[in-house]
Design goal:
The chain has about 450 residues and is of the alpha/beta class. It is built from 15 helices and 16 strands. α13 runs parallel beside α15 and α14 crosses α15. The chain binds pyridoxal-5'-phosphate.
Length: about 450
């Protein structure tokens, strides 16, 4: 095994370019190679066990190697591993489309499959644009996004992204957009009148540009990659109202928030909101396989109907769109939601999480603790009084993550915000343990000179 590890490390160094990773210097850090998963734990080659504190990048729902999911994928493998949805169908995609339409906010009846969150967003952007073309309003072609928004890494998704660190380099390649400030209460200068800061500007932009706006796109309730930044209650409902009043589509990107993360099946359901388009991915297969869906209303879908020669067709589709293995996992995951009453069972976990987070808040470097359901961001600051961040070069978030690893948990930060987003299937004991490790790691990672 040891030789095996040495070889794998060498081959990794020689050939594997890791995503969102500065490869210079990465080779000097110890490489963690995961070989096994079970429940909420991941294991490395030496058999060391780690709590999967970010659900393998926000996607695992019921834990690893869940028997029902394994069996569903294996059973489908005995039928067919892949067949296209271009002009054909297969049972898992048909059944999953129907189930998604059943559980989605009212009105979202049509399901367009793709493979990843980014592609679900690309499809939604193109649908919104072409909806207006097909309706004879081609001038409605602009998108309004939120600062700090994250919708994936393909160019369309980057164009509607609002994280300058990730997105600015590509600006020359992107279509222009309108941007409204997103709520970020911890760093808001105008805490007295937060409505003024957040909603009023968005309302003004939508009203002023209604004639040229195709859609508003946002992450409902909680902006994920921005640093787990929640919106004040009522914000989403008001955006829905405003877009409706001005004849602008609303695209809800539930790639991160979907499938129970915020305590409801979908974040939009906290505010009784039905968007015109909704993007799903990450948790859709329980985190097993790549699959995504863009849900649309009959109104949007209807605009694409016409004689063949009118060319109103949605000319879009990826090779592995709606892959049968992935769709089978998606169906099995939704069955577990029902059978285990997963959402009902979250109450106690969310409360425990709230209590554990409250215990972290007094730490001298914990600036802000943000929670919506099972999504958590812990923003670390150098100076709690002035809210001054740590120097970027110190890589405090990264230090905390390395410390957590030694303590038996895998985390991944967003800058100096520590993210907790465990599988929903985590037990109370495991959740408590994850929080204890996190607090200890924050202590170690923020110590002067630590690292
Ligand atoms: C992760 C994420 C995406 C991108 O999904 P990929 O599967 O990584 O392409 C899009 N939107 C949101 C809100 C996300 O969190």
């Amino acid at each position: 095994m040891a030789d095996d590890r040495d070889l794998l490390v060498k081959w990794d160094r020689d050939h594997l370019w890791h995503p969102f990773t500065q490869m210079q210097g990465f080779g000097k850090e110890e490489l963690l190679i995961i070989t096994l998963g079970e429940g909420v734990y991941l294991y490395d080659q030496e058999g060391r066990r780690y709590l999967d504190g970010v659900a393998s990048l926000w996607c695992n729902v019921h834990g690893h190697r869940r028997a029902e999911l394994d069996e569903a994928v294996a059973a489908q493998l005995k039928q067919v591993a892949h067949s296209t949805l271009l002009g054909l169908a297969h049972p898992p995609a048909i059944r999953l489309a129907r189930r998604l339409a059943e559980i989605a906010p009212p009105g979202l009846t049509r399901v367009f499959f793709s493979d990843d969150g980014s592609t679900a967003v690309e499809a939604a952007l193109k649908m919104a644009f072409q909806y207006w073309v097909n309706r004879g309003r081609p001038e409605k072609r602009r998108f309004l996004k939120l600062s700090g928004g994250y919708h994936g890494d393909t160019l369309g998704a980057v164009a509607v992204g609002g994280i300058s660190l990730f997105h600015e380099t590509y600006r020359p390649l992107l279509f222009p957009t309108l941007e409204a400030p997103a709520p970020y209460c911890y760093r808001c200068r105008d805490r007295e009148d937060c409505r003024e800061q957040c909603l009023t500007r968005l309302e003004e932009l939508v009203a002023a540009h209604r004639g040229e706006l195709a859609a508003v796109i946002l992450e409902p309730v909680m902006q994920g990659a921005a640093g787990m930044i929640p919106q004040p209650p009522g914000y989403l409902a008001r955006v829905r109202e405003v877009t409706g009043e001005h004849g602008v589509l609303l695209i809800a990107d539930e790639v991160a928030t979907g499938f129970g993360r915020t305590g409801r099946m979908f974040a939009c359901q906290h505010e009784g909101v039905s968007p015109d388009l909704m993007c799903l991915a990450k948790g859709i297969t329980g985190g097993y396989l790549p699959l995504a869906a863009t849900l649309a209303t009959d109104e949007v879908y209807g605009a694409f109907l016409g004689d063949y020669t009118e060319f109103k067709t949605f000319f879009h589709g990826h090779t592995f769109t709606g892959n049968p293995l992935a769709a089978a996992a998606g169906l099995a995951s939704l069955e577990i939601f029902e059978k285990d009453k997963v959402l009902a069972g979250l109450g106690g976990k969310m409360e425990l999480l709230t209590r554990e987070l409250a215990a972290m808040a007094p730490h001298p470097h914990v600036g802000d603790v943000r929670q919506r359901g099972m999504m958590v961001g812990i923003e670390l600051v150098m100076d709690k009084g002035t809210r001054e961040p740590f120097p970027v070069a110190r890589r405090t978030g990264h230090r905390v993550v390395l410390a957590a690893r030694k303590l038996g948990a895998i985390l991944r930060p967003l800058g100096d915000t520590i993210v907790l987003m465990p599988p929903l299937g985590i037990s109370l004991e495991e959740l408590k343990s994850l929080c204890r490790i996190t607090l200890e790691a924050i202590g170690r990672g923020t110590e002067p000179g630590s690292g």
